[in-house]
Amino acid sequence: MRCAEDAQCNSPYEVCDQESLHCKHKQLWPLEPIEWFGMFFTSFWIILSQCAGHSGGGTLVPLYRLIFSFDVKNAIRISNLTIVTAAFVSFLTNLPRRHPTKKDTKGNSTGVMLDYSLVIILCPMGVVGSVIGTIIAEICPEPVVIFAMTLCLLLLACYIGFRLFKIFK
Does residue 71 belong to any structural domain of this protein? Predict the structure, then answer.
């Protein structure tokens, strides 16, 4: 959007670039109070998601849009970076842990906690899906991406709701 001053930009996170006279996202520092809240809430959400055994990426994109006012494409990029970082930290945390039931003849734990045979099967599919999704998100217009993400999250929520209903019935 063309601008002459910061007040003409739509978001509190956008400033008017005096060289190009277009609105752009503000620099990282200094942080606004809502950004501090967003960072802590995102960290809490990632920790909670990692404890539950999933990445939480589908919920990070709306969070980044609401709190940090990123457009969909930048929110997806930052969400992907957040997921990769959280997975790497989780991997490093679990690397030294030993499996409690796999023991040698002396009773010492020998097996690693991570099941690498499952990782070898699931990781390539996850990476390919993530790359295809990112390419599609770059090609498609923003309303299509928002509709597709909303539809996927609604279908996932319905599936989980039906499973919970079946379990606790």
Answer: yes
